[in-house]
């Protein structure tokens, strides 16, 4: 498993715990968990904690987007794994300071849902994140590049007439 994929997995585990546990877990315990799961890989621990912190910080922005997009589904009725995979994916699409291409975010989310969710989770997660990604592109006139060496979000340049 790729390092970033493993870090996303740890972030999801932390988000699941955060979502299901009414008692706040002390930050040192969260860091110990991430460090242990990622075998002391400082870069990936920092990445996993950045994802976790980002979702927690932006939850009040993310959840209404999920409510709007997941027609006929209340957040409270979604499987906790699906809900948190979606939160993680929406955070990466809309708030991550180092955004990944839409395809990468969706593929990573689908793999997490396949590993931890139900048999229906991958299709559910794929559909919701694809809709959100397309809305994001339409809202801002942006296209998401598939080339990882390029900046993921760029304005679509106007076409110039030949001449």
Explained architecture:
With 163 residues, the protein is mainly α. It has a single domain (3-155), classed as N-utilizing Substance Protein B Homolog, Chain A (Orthogonal Bundle). Helices cover 66% and strands 4% of the residues. The chain has helices at residues 3-20, 27-37, 42-69, 80-94, 102-116, 121-140, and strands at residues 142-144, 153-155. It has a two-stranded antiparallel sheet. A hairpin with an 8-residue loop joins strand 1 and strand 2. Helix 1 runs antiparallel to helix 2 (27-37). The radius of gyration is 17 Å and the shape is globular.
Which homologous superfamily in CATH is the superfamily?
NusB-like
Average predicted local confidence, pLDDT: 87
**What sequence of helices (H) and strands (E) makes up the elements?**
HHHHHHEE
Give the end-to-end Cα distance, rounded to a whole number of Å: 50 Å
Model regions low in confidence, pLDDT < 50 over at least 5 residues: 141-163
What is the total domain count? 1
Q: Please tell me how large the radius of gyration is.
A: 17 Å
Gross CATH architecture: Orthogonal Bundle
* Subunit organisation of the chains: single chain
Which structural class matches the secondary elements? mainly alpha
Q: Report the strand count.
A: 2
Strand content: under 5%
How is the topology of this model organized?
Blueprint: H1 3-20, H2 27-37, H3 42-69, H4 80-94, H5 102-116, H6 121-140, E1 142-144, E2 153-155
Antiparallel strand pairs: 1-2
